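Morning. Coffee machine broken again, so started the prediction first thing and wrote up yesterday's gels while waiting. Chain of 185 residues, entered below exactly as on the submission form.
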Amino acid sequence: MAVKKPHKLLKKSDDYMRNALTKLPAMVCILNGPNHVVEFANEMYLKHVGNRDLIGHPIRKALPELEGQGYFEHLDTVFKTGKTFTSNETLTKIDRGKGKFEEGFFNFEFQSTYNEQGNIEGILLFAVEVTDQVLARQKIENEIKQKYEELAFHKTERGKRAAELGIANKELVFQDNEKKSEQQS
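Came back before lunch.
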């Protein structure tokens, strides 16, 4: 039985991982170096950015609309420190290939990747769009808030009516007592 050379096994393992990541139902992107050059982006990631040509380009040039949204700063920090960055339900304005910015909510995780010497060489970016879930939750929260406001209004109105009835009742009692006083005199 022939023994496969280690580099061929590694290549086969790398190919397997790339194929698995390509079809993953989440956004995956591998960035390389301090300029965060896009080395790999899976189908879901490419779909979310309008199938733009990202491979081989620094992320700042490939997705310029992310400027000012904090992403590049977080990538720089992860690359410098090795500390994972996680963010949930982050509002993001992105060009999905239609030439205009669209808003979406995403859960993100940026993890540093290391070379054989243990030095940071890049970042693995993992993201899931949660826009539908966030909008559904916000709708429910708004409906609940509206119901509470309606209940508070009705409670206030009932309180006003109760106060008016209490005053009217006191007036009737007072008038009744006056009539009794007049009848006794």
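The helical segments are 6-23, 43-48, 59-62, 71-81, 131-184. Going to sketch it on the whiteboard this afternoon.
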